[in-house]
Design brief:
Blueprint (H helix, E strand, L loop, with lengths): L5 E5 L9 H14 L3 E4 L7 E2 L7 E2 L3 H13 L5 E4 L15 H6 L4 E3 L4 H10 L1 H4 L6 E3 L11 H13 L2 H5 L13 E5 H6 L13 E5 L5 H13 L8 E5 L8 H11 L2 E6 L9 E3 L1
Parallel strand pairs: 1-2, 1-5, 5-6, 6-7, 8-9, 9-10, 10-11
Antiparallel strand pairs: 3-4, 7-12
């Protein structure tokens, strides 16, 4: 079995916030202590403000964030990739990505939150996923969160990493578990709603839709659910999975009514999201 021995850390969303430099260094050391060789993108410590005075900072300009991902992906020494952090910014680079590369050189990616947009775009646009092949991405903690995980969350992530056979993965025969017999798509609700009307949001037909959210008032969560509903994204799905978000509540009475109307089941309080950070294979 050819296991993962190296990991590339990319930054295609927000810049590090004050105090997170130590988290980055400590988390890299944690991965190295697991025997992994860590490759760092050049822009991990970069910062560029969205607009003057906004106090929203990207991890460098668009080209830097694009290169952060693609340079590591094209590096044959890098077995898999993990996002440094989430935040905001990955949608900028979606039109610039070479989706053929993701299909021809499949690699696991570990991330969540803002990176939901990247995952859905890769699934929708890459050769690999258009051919109905293996998932390339894992809804998982990101780099700067690793040292704050509890024992079970940390072991779940490391166990999945150690379970990946890269030879099988490259041959499109990879399956991480039989957790669901259907494709699992979704992630952060805000990002899915933001992709509506674009070419980057896939069809959830006959699949499982997974949703989680953080720090959004009830009316915004409900509005985003209604947007997905009006776009037909809950039609002909098998199940709706709701992760443990943080400071964001779903309108369960409406979702139960929606499930009854569309003949799907709901699983609640799953340990994937901003509150509990277990790792879930998507795709």
């Amino acid at each position: 079995m050819n296991k993962i021995s190296s990991i590339g850390i990319f930054a295609s969303s927000s810049a590090l916030k004050q105090g997170e430099e130590d988290l980055l260094r400590d988390s890299i050391k944690m991965l190295e202590d697991q025997g992994l060789k860590v490759y760092q993108a050049k822009n991990l410590f970069d910062g560029e403000e969205l607009i003057p005075g906004s106090e929203s900072f990207f991890a460098g300009n668009k080209n830097a964030r694009l290169s952060s991902l693609m340079d590591l992906w094209l590096n044959p020494q890098v077995d898999c990739l993990m996002s440094m952090r989430g935040g905001y910014g990955v949608m900028d680079i979606l039109p610039e990505l070479d989706y053929q590369v993701f299909g021809k050189i499949p690699k696991p990616i570990f991330a969540y939150s803002d990176l939901t947009a990247l995952f859905m775009a890769i699934y929708q646009k890459s050769y690999c996923c258009k051919s109905g092949q293996s998932p390339q991405f894992f809804h998982s903690p990101m780099l700067i969160e690793l040292t704050s995980l509890d024992h079970k969350e940390k072991n779940a992530l490391l166990n999945i990493m150690q379970s990946i056979d890269l030879d099988a993965y490259q041959n499109f025969d990879f399956r991480i578990s039989a957790f669901s017999e259907h494709k699992i798509l979704g992630g952060n609700l805000s990002m899915l709603a933001a992709l509506l009307g674009t070419e980057y949001l896939p069809d959830f037909h006959n699949g499982v839709v997974f949703l989680e959210e953080v720090a959004e008032p009830a009316y915004k969560v409900d509005r985003m659910i209604k947007s997905l509903e009006l776009a037909g994204k809950f039609n002909n799905i098998k199940e709706l999975w709701l992760g443990q978000g943080k400071n964001a509540e779903f309108n369960m009475s409406h979702l139960q009514e929606l499930a009854s109307q569309n003949n799907f089941t709901i699983k609640q309080n799953l340990g994937f999201g901003h509150a509990r950070k277990f790792t879930l294979a998507l795709g």
